[in-house]
Amino acid sequence: MSERSGKVQTVLGLIEPDQLGRTMTHEHLTMTFECSHVPPAPGDEGLAAAPIEIKHLHWLQQNPYSHQENLLLNQEIEAVKEELLCYRKAGGGSIVENTTTGINRNLPVLRQLAKDTGVHVVAGAGYYVDVTHSDETRKMTVEKLTDIIVSEVLHGADGTEIRCGVIGEIGTGWPITESEKKVLRATAHAQTQLGCPVIIHPGRDTAAPGEVIRILQEAGGDITKTVMSHLDRTIFDHQELLEFAKMGSYLEYDLFGTDLLNYPFNLRVDMPSDSVRVQNLAFLIKEGYEDRILIAHDIHTKHRLTKYGGHGYSHILKNIVPKMLSRGITQNQVDKILIENPKHWLTFK
Ligand SMILES: CC(=O)NCCS(=O)(=O)O
Questions:
Q1: 135/119 Cα distance (integer angstroms)
Q2: Closest to 171 (Cα-Cα) out of 218, 212, 136, 226
Q3: CB 262 within 8 A of CB 62
Q4: What is the ipTM of this complex?
Q5: In the chain, at which end, N or C, are there fewer CB atoms within 10 A of the end residue's CB?
Q6: Where does a divalent metal cation 1 bind (predicted)?
Q7: What percent of the chain lies above the pLDDT cut of 90?
Q8: Ligand 1 mean position to 16 CA, how many Å?
Q9: Ligand 1 pocket member 300 (CB < 6 A)
Q10: Mutate to test the pocket of ligand 1, among 72, 174, 300 (most ligand atoms within 8 A of CB)
Q11: What's the CA gap between 176 and 192, in Å, rounded?
Q12: Which pLDDT score is estimated for 296?
């Protein structure tokens, strides 16, 4: 049995699972998202180059990836610190920080934020999507990738002694590339060695989550300790959702606070509103999945911070929880989604 067994690993060390409290299982506190820049529509070049201002907020909400500066969340450490203090005041306890290799993980900043705010921060090991894989990463064998991921959890990552407490978000696109498949197999092998939680970013296609789970399963991964992120923008039909839910992973709705009409990464998608997200949670609960649901905001751009008029990290606690309660979800079920489910997922076997 390892020292991590029965514990949660934060950037400040191991803690008891009961110390976590309310937990957002998919956020970013510092990262860059230049890999996902979308050129502005003809005529919008001026807006895309303008400083972020309240008069441009609606444009930014509809075109978040077409503004280069908006993609640099790493420039907002002070604002994020203030947000985390508000998150604590609102009853938040912990945050899983999903930034992996490829989108500028910064473990010393995460550790400082945890120290300054008292919020428990769990950092992510592994690799984001193919477009961010270096030539060196692409050439690695599954064994080498496994060793690196294991070391990020056991010894620390990016040349620091700060240890990751989950693997992910592991990035995959659609179709899943060969390099991403190797990372997925390495993730499963590392999880087998460590007994740790895993979290996946699926490609933007309805078939993507199921395909990822099949690859992890074949490589020996523990699907019951694996989270499928971004279901909001990936599976829409309730029957397809139930088919996927039967595969046994955690089901994460993590884009609370976003209301995007034309989702630039897949224009066929009708991005749901927060009201529809809550309806989906109520549906999954009715179907018996209350032990498998997780929620978050996945803040990864500047405009979603309260400093810029956004909803911030406390939106779920302040606005979504009352909405859930008003739609027949009980306090006990809310507590499962925000406290019990994250706790079970994050505890090492
Ligand atoms: C940081 C990240 O991967 N966020 C997800 C954005 S997406 O549009 O839902 O893929």
A1: 36
A2: 212
A3: yes
A4: 0.98
A5: N
A6: 26, 28, 169, 298
A7: 99
A8: 30
A9: yes
A10: 300
A11: 22
A12: 99
